[in-house]
Amino acid sequence: MVLYEVKNYEEMSRKAAAVIAAQVVLKPDAVLGLATGSTPLGAYEQLVKWHQKKEVDFSGISSVNLDEYKGLGGDNRQSYRYFMDTNLFQHINIEKSRTFVPDGLEPDSVKACRAYDEVIEKLGGIDLQILGIGANGHIGFNEPGESFEKGTHCVDLAESTIQANARFFQSLDEVPRQAYTMGMKGILSARKILLLAAGEPKADALYQALCGPVTPQLPASILQLHRDVAVIADQGACARLHGQGAASYFLRR
Ligand code: F6R
């Protein structure tokens, strides 16, 4: 695991976009594992800019997203499919039929999750998985306490996650209580992982993920077991690592 500490969100976004663009250049038919949320948004904006300047070609790329709210369809503005379409896919030349997000409208959880694992398997696995981290250490919607060995599955969202995501909905009541998420098994089978973190609210989770014990109580800690993880985090997110003198152990500037 290598940590690249950067000044701020903008620098994190540019560096993350550069890693993604490099993957696309090196393997034009790569499978990208993508995340939603505030963290990767700046990287997606940068990729769109580079694409508009004809510097990155996504025509051979496939993508699989980490998660989707159960019960929301792609035309719902809060769905992760809608987020990906409007923030990235509509602005680059990726083939829409090769962009995959769990089917939030499939009420049968077992069916939805099995179908998604089959998609990932048929694509030959994920070349580069982008991850954000929740303040409680979740990755995807793998909340604290989930077992590590699951493939895609249906989760009950933690109260803290519901609260954190409420900012995107009209009211707390509208936030879905369940989601389909890629499991740790799927995430860990990605050939490379890029974990992004910005801001002090992520400092504790990032510290626990990198330096704490590997435990389902802090889902991101399992990344310690993967052989190719890069972390790009800003100064705020690294605050606790510095406090503990731990950053020097991982750091490349
Ligand atoms: C999103 C996802 C989540 C987020 C995490 C951080 O697809 O899987 O794990 O990465 O909740 O969210 P933000 O980036 O909004 O702080």
Descriptive overview:
- There is one protein chain.
- With 253 residues, this protein is of the alpha/beta class.
- It is 32% helix and 17% strand.
- The chain has a single domain (2-190, 201-227), classed as Rossmann fold.
- It has helices at residues 9-26, 41-52, 80-87, 109-122, 159-165, 184-188, 203-211, 239-243, 247-250; strands at residues 2-6, 31-34, 62-65, 67-69, 99-100, 128-131, 153-156, 178-181, 192-197, 229-234, 251-252.
- Strands 5-3-2-6-9-10-1-11 form an 8-stranded parallel beta sheet, with helices on both faces. It has a 3-stranded antiparallel beta sheet with strand order 4-8-7, covered by helices on one side.
- α1 (9-26) crosses α2.
- The longest helix is centred in the first third of the chain and has 18 residues, at 9-26.
- The protein is globular, with a radius of gyration of 17 Å.
- It starts with a strand and ends with a strand.
- Fructose -6-phosphate binds at residues 35-39, 66-67, 132-134, 138-141.
